[in-house]
Amino acid sequence: MALSSKTNKDFKITGNWEVLSKELQKKFPQLTETDLKFEATKDEELLKRIETRLGKKREDVISILTKMQTEAK
Fold first, then answer.
1. Rounded to two decimals, what is the model's pTM?
2. Predicted confidence pLDDT, tens digits, the chain (73 residues)
3. CATH number of 2-72
4. Do residues 35 and 53 touch, judged by C-beta distance below 8 A?
């Protein structure tokens, strides 16, 4: 599982999203399966849904995802 975070603008989710999304739901129970539905090439829409549900900025969501990905290794 890998997350690419070259810049916030270029952020892409790669790897095993199913595992990471389950971890996100454990940490943030307010996230629904609909919020976490990932479709190839729609990273931006996924990030916006998570931002909205958590009430956080894009940078914060990317930081959370990057940290969780690192911890999963």
1. 0.81
2. 444 444 566 777 766 899 999 999 999 999 999 999 998 888 899 999 999 999 999 999 999 998 887 777 6
3. 1.10.1470
4. yes
Domain ranges of the chain: 2-72
User: For residue 15, how many C-alpha atoms fall within 13 Å in the half-sphere facing its CB?
Assistant: 16
Q: Where are the alpha helices (DSSP H) in 28-57?
A: 43-54
Name the strand (E) or helix (H) holding 14: strand 12-14
Element holding 73 (H helix, E strand): none
Q: What are phi and psi of 72, to 5 degrees?
A: -75, -15
What is the biggest distance separating any 2 CA atoms in the chain, rounded to whole angstroms? 28
Angle at 30 between CA 25 and CA 33, to 5 degrees: 55
